[in-house]
Amino acid sequence: MSGGSGGEKSEKATPKRRKKARHDGQIGNTPELGAWLGMLAASFVIPHVAKSLMDTSTRGVVMIGSVIRAPDAGRAMAIASDAFHDGFMNALPMALLAAAVGVASVAGQGALWFAPGLLKPKFKRLNPLSGIKRMFGKHGAWTLVKSLLKTAALAVVVYASIRNLVPTLLGSGSLPLSELVSICIDSVMTMLRWAAVAGLLMALADFVVVRKRNDKQLKMTMQEVKDEFKSSEGDPHVRGQRRAAQMAMRRNRMMADVPTADVVVVNPTHVAVALRYDPQKGAPRVVAKGGDHVAARIRAVAEEHRVPMVADIPLARALHAACAVGEEIPPDLYRAVATVIAFIMTLRRRGSTAGVHTVRTLAPTG
């Protein structure tokens, strides 16, 4: 892969590039899939709709005869209204099925997307040179192949259907008219179904070709990928959101460690530092710290979990300034912190450590 010069489009489109393409209506789908699916579905529904419409028409003709024998304008209007309503209700399922199939086929291709970019006029579409290039390019060649394949497939289906139907018609002298009409309808529906199946196969092939062509058009150069990355990283809003999310995650983890602390040294209101001491792991370690509202949250969590708090302004300030979360305390604070921990251990032996306590510690040096 070259791409080093930034001139060859060798990189796959980024999610941002694909989102922009979808916004502009460059999705890479084929409308033929929905058309052939609709025809296939209609071939199973049309016979039932036609039978319902025929029954409705028959009832209407019978009722019209009675009106002719005894003319009544009001009754005639009622018959016409009922006939229109019944016809509409009979045809409604087929219309809903066609709409549902169309939406499902578009959604199945990942193209159910509102693209306002398609509403904007693009004068380059009127450029005759672009039209000629499409006509004699790969797109035009594939369109020609599709047309020839569809024509050939439809010709084969029609020929096979007629070849099977002609002998039946020639020997139908003794058949009732209703049965003959039923045979013709069944033959036509079978022909439509096979034509729809052939069309679906070609539509699937067209979908693969169109999707590959769309992916190729969306490819990016290495320089475009780098520029997009720099643009995303350089966006202050994006950086601010990322930093805020990271700080929130760190703060949540820190608050989850407060209940494990042995003592919380407080200011008593502006600063709070939670310490945990494990003799086998060295010096006491800071598990949480913060000022103002963060300090208030640390104190609230400590109070909820009955973690003892010691009010010592100099020590709290020194720990807050000298230690990061997860670090051991510096050596110059060992004596002061040891005094606090010894005091807490004494309280534990007495049985009560919850609440805020005051202990006289050695002033921290440095």
UniProtKB/TrEMBL annotation:
The chain crosses the membrane at residues 94-119, 140-162, 191-210. GO terms for biological process: protein secretion. Keywords: Cell projection, Cilium, Flagellum, Membrane, Transmembrane, Transmembrane helix. Residues 1-27 are annotated as: Disordered. It holds the Pfam family Bac_export_2. One of its GO terms (cellular component) is plasma membrane. SUPFAM superfamilies: EscU C-terminal domain-like (SSF160544). The keyword Transmembrane helix applies. This is Flagellar biosynthetic protein FlhB. It comes from Jatrophihabitans endophyticus. The lineage of its organism: Bacteria, Bacillati, Actinomycetota, Actinomycetes, Jatrophihabitantales.
